[in-house]
């Protein structure tokens, strides 16, 4: 009879231990779910910011290319004007 009560006591203690472990696992799972949600949101924000920065960078690159082309045209005009003026002086 004593062995039966001892076994029942051990089963109850094991059940309580398993319940505690399950409660801890659920708490960890909920915490990780909340962290995952926050990380997903942060990732979306960073992706959006990265997309905007890429667009801004590409726009800046295009602007620099445009200005470089304008500078080349002005330098060519300046050289043509100088040559014309030099040729005019020789006549």
Low-confidence stretches: none
Give the class from helix and strand content and strand pairing. Answer: mainly alpha
Overall pLDDT, averaged? 93
Series of secondary-structure elements, N-terminal to C-terminal: H
Description:
The protein has 91 residues and is an all-alpha fold. 98% of the residues lie in helices and 0% in strands. The chain contains one helix and no strands. The chain has one helix at residues 2-90.
Short description:
The protein is mainly α and 91 residues long. It has one helix at residues 2-90. It is built from 1 helix and no strands.
Fill in the keyword field for this structure.
single chain; mainly alpha; rod-shaped; 1 helix; 91 residues
Topology of helices and strands:
Layout: H1 2-90
